[in-house]
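Entry for the shared binder. Reason: the reviewer on the internal report wants the predicted structure included alongside the sequence.
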Amino acid sequence: MLRRGRRDYMGLQRYDVPDPEDRSQFVPKVWAPLNVPLRDADGRIAGILHHVEDVTDLDAALTDGELNDWSPDQPRRLYEAAQLASRLRHAHGEAQRENRNLREALRTRGVIEQAKGVLIGQRGCGPDEAFAILVKLSQDTNIKLYDVARALLDSVIHGNQPTTSAG
């Protein structure tokens, strides 16, 4: 799936882990791994976001037939299985949000780094101070950091003196 640039649900994977109480023993675990391609500004795959959720309890409930044969305990087990499935959906949603955030960071990082370079050249400051100036200007004007950096670069490119009064 990743070769085609799509997310890859790897299916359930069994991977036992050491028992925290007795490190010589292992605890059976079932995991639901998800791989999501991260794209750069040009749409090329720049990395892979790998997210794994522990679904041992849900797998046990489904494979042991606990949810198939009715028993007085079944409503509780169904509820627990639904909670686990909901957690898994939530975790996958979190992975998607993280993916979007990382894509945005990849898209904006170059512009912010260039703006830092302009400030370093103009003011003779270090990279951390240049970034602090951009952040302060962003906060003081209530304008996104990327947009402040873009405006600074545009003003330099067009020969105007940028307004960098922050700091």
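Summary line for the report: The first helix runs from residue 56 to 63.
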